[in-house]
Amino acid sequence: MWLYKEKPLETVPDDAYGYVYLITNTATNRKYIGKKLFWFRKTKVVKGKKKRLKVESDWRDYWSSSDEVKDDVETHGADSFIREILHICPNKGLCNYLEAREQMDRRVLETEDYYNGQVQCRVHKTHIKNLKT
Question: pTM of the entire structure?
Answer without folding.
Answer: 0.86
